[in-house]
């Protein structure tokens, strides 16, 4: 059969590599565009949820591994390091969208500083709480067999085979309420005092790309030095999210009533500590940094200028 002129032209176009409609690519682009959230608050809340999820997944997984293996597959330091890696990973993941607070106490401090609008406080905190809850559930599923083998199928808060501390924090038996409260206040104060200066342009700011890694090192330092008393929660969402999960997963109300209803300490104390750390930074550091609009003169220059004025006054008096 002889090709028609139209057929020859069509074949010629194909041979010359003319663009062919890419329906699948267009469909993918349209789908991704439809999934993109236009509401800024929703985007930020999703980022906080995912970031806190990543943080808790690293940390609680390490706690589960160390606890259920009776420290044959890791040690206490492993948990500290895992939480720090979780902080770094979550910050790199979400910093460009929400600022990567990952902590209601941090969000509260930024609201107090005026860097975040107050109407974002509750949505951010709820998102962080939900992310921590979901992460705890996933850790439970991943380590379900190990947890049951370790505990003998009995999920408890007390005793040598307790497993509640895999998820939430609990005080040492010798610790008083006042000491545990102070512990959390000091730990969170140190956190805010150390991180607020990282982006301060008037001081010695850290490179933006390195801030997540530096914050992770700060968290590691706090957890290595201030977690012996009650686990260094320094984050209400990190503690309440997993605690709510254990309440619903079989540990029961004991996770809230144990140690004389101690659960409120890692909720309230970190918020107070974060505000104290922020206040200390403002009063002792921020207020005394040079104003970029009025550069502070070198002290030697000032002394030289004063000496010149004295010489000028002397000759004026002699004349």
* Overall CATH class: Mainly Alpha
CATH superfamily: Glycerol uptake facilitator protein
Number of domain units:
1
The DSSP helix count reads: 13
Query: Can you summarize the main beta sheet?
Result: none
Number of strands: 0
CATH architecture label name:
Up-down Bundle
Helix content: 55-70%
- Rg over C-alpha atoms, rounded to the nearest angstrom: 29 Å
The amount of beta strand, in percent, is: under 5%
Strand-and-helix sequence, N→C? HHHHHHHHHHHHH
Mean pLDDT: 88
CATH fold node name: Glycerol uptake facilitator protein
Distance between the termini: 120 Å
General form: globular
Instruction: Indicate the structural class.
Output: mainly alpha
Spans where pLDDT lies below 50 across 5 or more residues: 1-15
Q: In terms of topology, how is this protein built?
A:
Layout (H helix, E strand, L loop, with lengths): L4 H11 L7 H13 L4 H29 L7 H23 L5 H10 L7 H22 L1 H8 L25 H19 L15 H15 L10 H14 L4 H8 L3 H20 L14 H20 L1
Membrane topology: Multi-pass membrane protein
GO cellular component, one term: basolateral plasma membrane
Catalytic activity: glycerol(in) = glycerol(out); urea(in) = urea(out); H2O(in) = H2O(out)
What do these coordinates show?
The chain has helices spanning about 5-15, 25-35, 40-70, 75-100, 105-115, 120-140, 145-150, 175-195, 210-225, 235-250, 255-260, 265-285, 300-319. The protein is globular. It has a single domain (about 40-285), classed as Up-down Bundle (Glycerol uptake facilitator protein). The relative contact order is 0.12. It is about 65% helix and about 0% strand. It has about 325 residues and is mainly α. Residues about 1-15 have low confidence and may be disordered. α3 runs antiparallel to α4, α3 runs parallel beside α6 and α8 packs across α12.
């Amino acid at each position: 059969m002889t090709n028609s002129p139209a057929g020859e032209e069509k074949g010629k176009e194909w041979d010359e590599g003319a663009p062919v409609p890419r329906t699948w690519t267009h469909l993918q682009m349209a789908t991704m565009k439809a999934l993109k959230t236009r509401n800024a608050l929703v985007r930020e809340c999703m980022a906080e949820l995912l970031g806190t999820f990543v943080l808790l997944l690293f940390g609680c997984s390490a706690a589960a591994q160390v606890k259920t293996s009776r420290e044959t597959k890791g040690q206490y330091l492993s948990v500290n390091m895992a939480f720090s890696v979780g902080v770094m990973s979550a910050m790199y993941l979400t910093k460009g969208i929400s600022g990567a607070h990952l902590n209601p106490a941090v969000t509260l401090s930024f609201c107090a500083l005026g860097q975040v609008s107050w109407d974002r406080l509750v949505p951010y905190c709820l998102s962080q709480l939900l992310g921590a809850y979901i992460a705890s559930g996933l850790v439970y599923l991943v380590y379900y067999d190990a947890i049951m083998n370790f505990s003998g199928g009995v999920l408890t808060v007390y005793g040598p085979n307790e497993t509640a501390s895999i998820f939430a924090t609990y005080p040492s038996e010798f610790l008083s309420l006042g000491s545990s409260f102070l512990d959390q206040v000091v730990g969170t104060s140190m956190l805010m005092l150390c991180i607020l200066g990282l982006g301060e342009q008037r001081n010695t700011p850290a490179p933006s790309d390195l801030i997540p890694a530096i914050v992770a090192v700060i968290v590691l330092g706090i957890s290595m030095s201030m977690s012996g008393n009650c686990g260094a929660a320094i984050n209400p969402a990190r503690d309440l999210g997993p605690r709510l999960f254990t309440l619903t997963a079989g540990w029961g109300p004991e996770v809230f009533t144990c140690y004389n209803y101690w659960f409120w300490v890692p909720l309230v104390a970190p918020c107070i500590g974060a505000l104290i750390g922020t206040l200390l930074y403002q009063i002792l550091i921020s207020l005394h940094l040079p104003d970029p609009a009025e550069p502070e003169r070198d002290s030697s220059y000032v002394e030289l200028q004063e000496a010149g004025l004295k010489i000028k006054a002397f000759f004026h008096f002699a004349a």
